[in-house]
Amino acid sequence: MTLVYIFLLVIAVFVIMSFVSLRKIQKQNNQYNYNGISDDRYYELKYKLQFITSVGVIVIAVAGFFGVDKYENFVASFQKKTDSLDTKIKLFDQKIKSLDSNIVKYDTRINAYDIFLRKMDLSKVKFSKEMLASNKGLLALKDTINNIKKRNVLDKSFYVIDNLQISNYENNATAEINKKFYFRDMTTIIGDQLPIFFQKPVVFVIPQSSADISLIEVTNEYIIVDYGMFQHNGNKEVPKSFAFGLLIARKSE
Question: b/e per residue, 66-94, with b = 16+ CB within 10 A?
Fold first, then answer.
């Protein structure tokens, strides 16, 4: 389309130059009617002017025939495709930004999980230390029993009670704070009933959980126990009860 405009401009320049030349010839011959001029240059310029005008008309007709409109339609279609491409690029940029945001969220979650796992490791270490302390307590209890045997304070009749439970009153509002256990209701680990104690027996608590079980009272008929501090061992669920055992020794009559 630009070339057509340039070509038409050139034709217009030639027409103007020819018209100016005709005016000069007219003044020289002092004539005002172009058809009456006898100068050959006048006719030559006139024919050139007519030729150029005819060529211009042909060029315009050819340009219109071969698709000036098609060219404009092509430009419009190309512009539309370019706009569509810009829209897709913007959507792609938005997806990239959304992906970056999700990556940041995942990094935050990973950091939170890492912190949680570190706390779990610390809880495991703490629990291992507590179990080691419990084992040391059991060894100390064994030494105490051996010393008692050597002194003949007991009649060397021992009873081991397993899997007694005390409810966690922090998790159960109806649980007893100090729970009473009767000897007549207990059975040993081999299924035997406890004998009747005429004197208050010697009772030791065997830890079977992370809670600190302690004896509040001991009689010849029952014991009263309570618990102190306990650890969750890295578990979010609070235990409903705590297990423990007893080592009972009857005194000599």
Answer: eeeeeeeeeeeeeeeeeeeeeeeeeeeee
